[in-house]
Design goal:
86% of the residues lie in helices and 0% in strands. It starts with 8 loop residues before the first helix and ends with a helix. It has 71 residues and is mostly helical. The protein contains one helix and no strands. The model has no long low-confidence stretch (mean pLDDT 92).
Length: 71
């Protein structure tokens, strides 16, 4: 086997710096997007409740109409 090559301290520092900057950027971006996603989930939940209520009403009306047509 070939012995490992000695990596330059400048390259090591650059790699670690890029890693830390990436972590900081990711945390900042997550904190920015988290409230937006929470608001979207809240709105979607409200819309889902409305949609389910409308489907329930439609089902009740269609059942009421189907009972009187052919009987």
């Amino acid at each position: 086997m070939v012995p490992p090559v000695q990596v330059s301290p400048l390259i090591k520092t650059a790699r670690w710096s890029a890693l830390l900057i990436g972590l900081l950027y990711g945390k900042q971006r997550y904190d920015y997007l988290k409230p937006i996603a929470a608001e979207e989930r809240r709105i979607e939940e409200e819309e889902k409740k409305l949609r389910e209520e409308q489907e329930r009403i439609y089902k009740q009306l269609s059942e009421a109409n189907s009972d009187t047509i052919l009987k």
